[in-house]
Specification:
Elements lengths: L12 H5 L7 E6 L8 H4 L7 H15 E11 L3 E2 L2 E2 L2 H12 L2 E10 L15 E8 L13 E2 L3 H5 L31 E2 L4 E4 L19
Parallel strand pairs: 1-2, 5-9
Antiparallel strand pairs: 2-6, 3-4, 5-6, 7-8
Length: 216
Amino acid sequence: MNAIQTDYYLGDCLEVLSKFDADSSDLIVTSPPYADRRSKTYGGIKPDQYVEWFLPRAAEFLRVLKPSGTFILNIKEKAVNGERHTYVIELILEMRKQGWLWTEEFVWHKKNCYPGKWPNRFRDAWERCIQFNKTKDFNMYQESVMVPMGDWAEKRLKHLSKVDQSRDTSKEGSGFGKDVSNWVDRKMAYPTNVLHLATETGNRKHSAVFPKSLPE
């Protein structure tokens, strides 16, 4: 069995990536410093300056990513003066102008989020994992990550109505009718875009521990 060689590069991504060839990376996963968070570790970027700070890095990601590759951005808005800041939404819009396709968004449900109390909101138990691509024809190995159908299949697929066996318009006229019979006798289904993962605490010296299971 051949050994897998792993290379590590330590440094500012703008400097390091400038040495990488264009269209050379299959996957980029990053959790950059969030606005005004962990300022003692990262120096801190103001929410109103975040888009301007991130776009040059996004340009390098766009250059080195293969047309068939994927870029995942793990990020979360912060609350400023009692409301959520819009810097993440603004960043998505500017990245689309840069040439990115906003393909998908995963929700990382943090099962061990810290308790707390705020006057006008509840504690954060999730973060965004936003998927970007250069083209619509990117690699996606859906069959490799299928999950068991689950208990709902036993009840839902046992007694199918006529409506369940054709893709018709729903009674409300919403157009969301589905042919449920397609899933009879199937043992596996495609997963949802919600990821239930706890934050790892193995590296207690790091101010923003990133779980290895998230990119995996």
